[in-house]
Design goal:
Elements: E1 10-14, H1 17-20, H2 67-81, E2 85-89, H3 92-95, H4 106-121, E3 125-129, H5 137-140, H6 149-164, E4 171-173, H7 186-189, H8 208-232, E5 237-243, E6 246-249, H9 254-277, H10 282-290, H11 299-307, E7 312-316, E8 320-323, E9 331-332, E10 339-340, H12 356-370, E11 374-378, E12 387-388, E13 391-392, H13 395-414, E14 418-421, E15 444-446, E16 458-460, H14 462-472
Parallel strand pairs: 1-2, 1-14, 2-3, 3-4, 4-5, 5-7, 6-8, 7-11, 11-14
Antiparallel strand pairs: 9-10, 12-13, 15-16
Helix pairs in contact: 2-4, 6-8, 8-11, 12-13
The protein binds 6-O-phosphono-beta-D-glucopyranose.
Length: 478
């Protein structure tokens, strides 16, 4: 197959601070919400403990893969793969330990400065997520994102980092997967909301009024960050980031088709519309009315949202799901929402349905809707890797990427302006939903297990060498 990618296509990889850094209480860093999540598994839900008790529980983010100390080695390996771009996040509590201070923690600022210096050494463009599920734990106590005060705290944080790194970074993502709050699963992890009775990350008590208030506050915060950012450096480019769970009707029954359209609007389109088009879409006004959902939204908020729109569209893509009105149908899991099993697709061990063609479909879907440059900022397969004599033969990962990249090329041929790709992940990380290391995503293997045991040594998987060739051939050699 002749795969044609644009000359300056941004090949790279992604991570998030809370899933790689570790050093959770070092050099002035405060605890964030990920630091309060106990390890779980596919079968065991992740417990949330506001009082962190390391004697009793194991919290994987506390050491993670210790990127805090290994970043030079990690970036060197990324450079060896030929990365043009590296998507990472800035841990809010590393800069503002409690989230509400006026002055930043200098040690925290220094750490990211060092990372940017290292990236520059290898000509790797940073793509920085300002908020990737990393709310300082202190702000959880005031209701997380459902409290409007958090907008100001975030803006203060964003202003500092945008200013501090104005010469180091061009591409920014104000919020990771901002649409996570369109479902109850987003309450804790994304919104910092801990409703009474919530014990685990997966099984959360839901209050839609609070949840949509929190999402609205994030839209306003994002818009403010974009507006301030443009004043700081007019060359900054801001991207939305949507957890795109593409949905298909399970049957051609018109009721299934209609429900699929509604799910797509709510989960996928709504947040993209607000951040790219600059307004609440008509279908959400109707949704709020029908479900009696109320939250504070001022005229000033509407003005800000209109003004602070993003420049490019990015999304994570792992799977697709089917939608049906039939409640009896078998459901499969997904990250922010599950759905009906698609009989034509295989799934990962964690039951995420693998659908490369769905990526081409999704790219066309979003490009048609927004017409702005697109980046895929997460895509990958969580799998159990076998480590033997320093080698990891992850042909399943290579197959997954090969098939997805083929579809990206076809979407480009369709006319989609796809400008970059940062697979999840550059290097093994702690899984967000399960807290496992066993659910591995990286091109680089890290010797650490689900209990935090291991040498932390880094090893190149077979996919490392394969991806290196993909990048050097600009997607020709798959
Ligand atoms: C995305 C998140 O939803 O999915 C990442 O942005 C996360 O933080 C990724 O790691 C994969 O999910 P999981 O639960 O397998 O780690």
């Amino acid at each position: 197959m002749n795969t044609k990618f644009p000359k300056n296509f941004l090949w790279g990889g992604a991570t998030a601070a809370n899933q790689v850094e570790g050093a959770w209480d070092l050099n002035g860093k405060g605890p964030n919400l990920a630091d309060a999540m106990v390890a779980g598994s596919h079968k065991v839900e992740r417990k949330i403990t506001l009082d962190i008790n390391e004697d009793k529980y194991y919290y994987p983010s506390h050491v993670a893969i210790d990127h805090y100390h290994y970043y030079k080695e990690d970036i060197k390996l990324m450079a060896e793969m030929g990365y043009k771009v590296y998507r990472m996040s800035i841990g809010w509590a590393r800069i503002f330990p409690n989230g509400d201070e006026e002055k930043p923690n200098q040690e925290g600022l220094k750490f990211y400065k060092e990372i940017f210096k290292e990236l520059k050494k290898y000509n790797i463009e940073p793509l920085v997520t300002i908020y990737h599920n990393e709310m300082p734990l202190n702000l959880v106590k005031i209701g997380g994102w459902s409290n409007r005060k958090v907008i100001d705290y975030y803006v203060n944080f964003a202003k500092f980092v945008l200013n501090e790194y104005k010469d180091d970074v061009t591409y920014w993502i104000p919020f990771n997967e901002i649409n996570d709050l369109t479902t109850g699963v987003g309450n804790w992890n994304h919104g910092g909301i801990l409703n009474e009775g919530t014990e685990t990350f997966q099984n959360q008590k839901d209050d839609p009024n609070k949840r949509f208030a929190a999402l609205h506050n994030q839209f306003v915060a994002s818009a403010k960050a974009v507006i301030i950012g443009r004043e700081i450096n007019k060359n900054f480019k801001f991207g939305t980031m949507i957890c795109h769970i593409t949905v298909y009707p399970l049957t051609p029954h018109p009721d299934d088709v209609l429900l699929t359209q509604q799910e797509d609007q709510l989960r996928n389109c709504f947040s993209g519309d607000v951040q790219i088009k600059g307004y609440y879409p008509y279908f959400m006004k109707n949704y709020f009315e029908k479900n009696n959902i109320k939250f504070e939204c001022t005229d000033e908020d509407i003005k800000l949202i209109k003004e602070g729109v993003c420049d490019f569209y990015t999304f994570s893509y792992y799977m697709t799901n089917c939608i049906t009105i039939n409640k009896e149908v078998t459901q499969v899991s997904g990250n922010i929402m599950g759905g009906a099993k698609n009989p034509y697709l295989k799934a990962t061990e964690w039951n995420w349905q693998i659908d490369p063609v769905g990526l081409r479909y999704t790219l066309n879907h979003v490009y048609d809707r927004y017409g702005v440059p697109i980046m895929i900022t997460e895509n990958g397969i969580g799998a159990k890797d076998v480590f033997e004599n320093g080698e990891i033969h992850d042909d399943y990962r290579i197959d997954y990427y090969r098939e997805h990249i083929k579809q990206m090329a076809l979407a480009i041929e369709d006319g989609v302006d796809l400008v970059g790709y940062t697979p999840w992940t550059a290097i093994d990380v702690v899984s967000c939903s399960t807290g496992e290391m066993a659910k591995r995503y990286g091109f680089i293997y890290v010797d650490v297990d689900d209990k935090g045991k291991g040498t932390l040594k880094r090893y190149k998987k077979d996919s490392f060498y394969w991806y290196k060739d993909v990048i050097s051939s600009n997607g020709e050699k798959l």
